[in-house]
Amino acid sequence: MATAPRPRTTTRDPEDLTRRLTAWLGTRLPGAKAVGVTAPASNGMSSETLLFHIEHPEPLVRACALRLAADPAAYTVFPVYDMARQYRTLRLVADRTDVPVPKVLWLEEDPEPLGAPFFVMQRVDGRVPPDVMPYTYEGSWLHAATDAERERLEAGTVGILARLHDQVPPEEAEFLSLPGDGDALRRHVESQRAYYTWVIDGLARSPLIEAAFDRLEELWPREPGAPVLNWGDARIGNIVYDGFDPVAVLDWEMAAPAPREVDLGWTVYLHRFFHDLTVAFGQRGLPGLLRRDRVEARYARLTGHTPRDMDFYTLYAALRHAIVMLRVAYRQAHFGEVAVPADPDMLILHHGSLRAMVQGSYWD
Prior knowledge:
Number of strands: 9
Structural class: alpha+beta
CATH topology of the largest domain: Aminoglycoside 3'-phosphotransferase, Chain: A, domain 2
Radius of gyration: 20 Å
Shape: globular
Strand order of the largest sheet: 1-2-3-5-4
Helix content: 40-55%
CATH architecture of the largest domain: Alpha-Beta Complex
Number of helices: 9
CATH superfamily of the largest domain: Aminoglycoside phosphotransferase (APH), C-terminal lobe
């Protein structure tokens, strides 16, 4: 499945989108026309991203990217797409940190122009480690890099997390707080439990995911620590690199206040997800990249905060990813792309590694 064609993510017509985008663009920049509207070849299974150029004598920028709330007819990955929340997060990060993010240009909350709310930002040139084929496969630009080049990429990536966590005043990120009772970590986990309930509504439950939630309670951190702004989808597949240096951090739809380790666990595990898939296909992968011990040590040097309870947080990352994978698989079944097996846990690509984490043997 790591090398299979990408599952359907939209039912929208590209030509219709181009016409409607040009009509809307004229309301913000009279006489402007959207040209060369395309979707990226890889990455992103949730909100849609469109790339286009502005044709105009005096455009604010020429190369743009547009983030469009997911197509409601395409069996969406998440129940809610709050584009204003993402837009505001990008503005906050740009104003309060030196973390590189695209410049946001316009927010449109009215669904009428394109069928859903969206925002437009400046496109940043560079390259992104792909999901399909995974960057851990032989032949990818990152796999072909030298150890020193990958070390540079890793250092820049962990540096992004360190600066984000240290530089955003927590009170300015309160608009991202998740609903519920308890501290930020409890609300974060309960939001994932609610998400899982939404995913399985009317469908088969996942015994593995429910066992992982039970295991989280057994490993619950004694002192989670003060929450900071977490990027949420903190992985190298959401970063544009110039060479091996980060120049744009993308995809902020999962941003929320949480302990620092929520981002760290996601960064470490999402690389392991692609690495493990690669090894399963008989390749070596990239075992030296984003190793848990090195990420923890580098982050501690940069921030003075030594990551704690990482067995909990890497399990939590694998659990969160499993819920997403289950939803994506059910969407594939909805469109007739896959059949649902008798054991729903088999729909989770990384069911083996998640089970090992639940059993406490993954990091042995």
